[in-house]
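A note from the maintainers: we've had questions about how concatenated examples are separated. There is no special marker in the raw files; a new sequence line simply starts the next protein. For clarity in this README we add a label.
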Amino acid sequence: MDFSGKTIVIGITGGIAAYKACDLIRELYRLGAERVICILTPSAEAFVTPLTLQALSRQPVYSSELAVDPSGTPIHIVLAQQADALLILPATADCIAKLANGFSDNLVTTTAITFTGKPVLIAPAMNTRMWQHPLTQENVRKLESLPDYTIIYPSHGQLACGETGEGHLADQTTILQHLYRMLHPQAGLYRGVKALVTAGGTFEPIDPVRVISNRSSGKMGLALADELWAMGADVTLVTTMPPSGRLYKVLSVQTANDMREAVLTHAPENRVIFMAAAVSDYAVANASPQKIKREREASPSIELVPNPDILAELGQQKHPEQILIGFAAETENLLKNASDKLQRKNLDAIVANDISRTDIGFAVDENEVTILFADQSQCTLPKAPKAEIAQQLLELLARRLNSPRTASSV
C-alpha cells in the first residue's frame, strides 16, 4: 500500500479505542502519507490528548467546530478542500446517528458534512448491544447508501467492558486496505470482474519433514491480488503462503495437485486468471510416510514423477471471454522461452522475468518484467517494487486485452 502525497484526516470520537489512532498515524506516515491531520470531538479528548496526536502527526490538532486557519477560513472547510480522505474512528453509536441524520454539532460531524465528493470511511467501535441495536443498524445502512461512504465493519472480539462480541474496532490492516482501495488511482478499473490469482511455490513431500520446493516467495502473486482488489475486482487467491488480514478470498494449498484442484474448481467462474505461482514440475513418487532417518538410509533414492501442467489445462479449457495470463521465470533465453510457453499453452499474455538476477524475481521485493502478448507485441516494465509492477501490469492489461475498454469489460 502506498499513500504517497496523500493528506488524510482522522476524525476521533469519544470511544475507548481512540488510542488506536496513534499507531495508525505512524503507519500512514510509514506508507508515504504527506500529512495526517487529527480532529476530535470534545469527548475524544478524555481518551487521547491533542498533545499526543500533535507529536505523532507533526500537524496541528483541532477540536472546536469554530476553529479557523491563519487566514480565518473555518478548519472544516480547509480540510474538505485540501484533504484526500476522511477516516472516522472509533465511530461511536452517537456519531453514526448524527452523521446518518445530518447533524453537525462538533468538528468531526461538521467536517463530514462538508466533505463531499471525497472518500469518507467510518470505522465503528462500541458495545455489542449498541452495535446490534436496530436503530444503529438502520443508521449504518443509511450511511452505506451515500456516495463515497464506506463502513469498515467492526470485528468480533473482547470488548473494553469485558464482554465478547461484535463491536471491536477493525484491525489496522483492514482499515488501511479500505482506505487504500478508496484512494487508489485506478479505483474501479476492475469493478465487477472476478479474478483468480495463484502465488508461491508448491511443496512436494519427500517425507513428513522434507519437501521439494523452490525459492518463490509468492510476493508477486500477492501484489497482483492486492492491486486487483484495490481496483475493485472480486479476487480469489490460491497460494501456498496465505497472507493474514486480506479482505478477499484466500485458499491455502500445499502441493501442485492441491493447487490444480482449487484452480480448476474456481477457474470457470473467473473472468481473469493470473497464474503467478511457481508450481513444482515434479513430485516424489515414493514419498515416505515416516521421517527418513540418516542412520538407516545413508543415500536414499528419490523417484520423481511429473506433476500436472495446470496452466496448459487452463489454456485448453478456457472459454472465449476468459483472459489467461501465465508467468515465465527463466535463467536463460528469457524472451524465446516465454514466447514458446505463450503459444504452447494458449495464453493471452505471459509475464517473463529473469530469475538469474539476484536483485529481482524470487525472494526479493522488486521485479522487472517483459509482457508478451498473443499478437506477438511486447512491453517491458523496468525495475520497481512488486506492488508497482502489479499496478502497471494491470493497467496495461486493461488497455490492451479488450477494446473498446470499459471498467466492467476487463
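[label: protein 2]
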Amino acid sequence: MAGQEASVAGRRLRITPAGSGEFRMENAQLAVTVVDSKLRLSGRAGEFDRINLASADRSSFVSVNQTRYRGTIAISVRGGSISVVNELPLEAYLMGVVSREMGRRPEAERAALEAQAIVSRTYALKNRGRFRNEGYDLRAGVSDQAYGGVDAETATGNAAVRSTSGLVITHAGQLISAFFHSTCGGSTAGPEEAFRTVRTTPYLTPVSDRRSGGGYYCDVSPRFRWEVRWDGLQLRDILRRTLPAVLGIEASSVDRLRAVLVHRRGRSGRVAELRVVVGGGEIPVYAPDVRRVFQTPAGGSLGSTVITLESEDGAGDLMGLTVFGSGWGHGVGMCQWGSIGRAREGQDARSIVTTYFPGGRVEAWY
C-alpha cells in the first residue's frame, strides 16, 4: 500500500527505526508521514528512512489504517510516497488470503478452502521475489492474490491452511503456474484464451465443470449468468476511450459503429476474437483485450469472455448491443465457485485441485 500518511496502532508496539535503537510504546496510536523523502513518526523526534513495527505481545497485532496484520510492518519511502510492506511467514500470509479469496464458508465446504490454500501456497512460492526490486514479493490485491491480514481470517479458513501446511501442486517436479478465478461458467479456459505471455501447458487446459447429474458445479455462483446492455452511441463512446487506451488505436477511427461480431472462439468456447465494424473497416479485438475494451456502462471490465451477442440494427448502424455472459474472471486454472460446488458434493481438496490442473500432483514441498 502507498500514500502520504499511514495510521499505525497497537496494544504493545515494538518500533525499530533504521539507524536508531528499538523502543516500545503501550496502547499506541501513531501517524507516519513523509516530509522531504523522510519518515516522521508522531510524538517522536527525528526523521527516518525506514521504520519496522511489530507487536511485543504475541496475542495482539499491528494495525495499519485500521487493518490488523501478523508479522512485521516495514514502512519506507518510495517515489515520494509511503510504502507499507507486511513481512510474515508464508503460512501466516495464507491465513489472510484463503478466506479473503473464498469468503466465509461453512465447515461442510472446507475442502474448497483447502484447495484454495494449496493453490495459493503454490502461487506464492512460484512468484516469490517477483517484485524484489520494489521491496516485496507479492501485491495484496487481485493482480496477485487478495490479502486482508488478520481481519480477513476465519476459523475455517485458518484450519484449511493448517491442515494443508506445506502442500503444493507440481508438474514434472516443478511448481506449477497456479492460476485461479471466480467462476468458469461451464468450462475453464486455456491460457491462450486469456493471456498474451502464458504458455500452454498440460496442466492448464480447458476442464468441463459439468456435473454428471446435470448442471455445473459452479452454477451456485451469483455470477454464473449475467448480461450487459449498451445503446449504440453509448458503446461507441466507450470504444473511443478504450480502444486507444488498450490497443493504441486512434479514437477517430471509431467514426461510426456498424456492428460487433464474434469472429472466432477458443477451445473452451470463449470468444477468441471480436470484430468491431466501423466506417473504415473492421478492428480486431483479441481475447486478452476483450474484457477491458468492452467496458460496462458503469465503467467496469466485462465479467468474462464466455459470451454471446444480440444486436439491434438500424439504417446501417448498431443501435444497441446486449452481451449474455457466463462466469466471472479469466477462466484459467481453478474455478473457485466450482470448487465450492464440488466440496458440497463430497469431493476432497486433492481431487478438486487435480481436476482443475490435469496432470498436476499435490505433494509436500516442506
